[in-house]
Amino acid sequence: MPTHTVPSSATPEETLAEIDAFAGSLTNDAAREALETLARTLRSGNDVVMATSDDAVTTSAAAKMLGVSRAHLYKVLDSGALPFTVVGKRDRRIAMSDLAAFIDKTEEARKSAARSVARRRDSRALSLDEMD
Question: Which of 52, 56, 67, 114 is 20 to 30 A away from residue 1, measured at CA?
Answer without folding.
Answer: 67
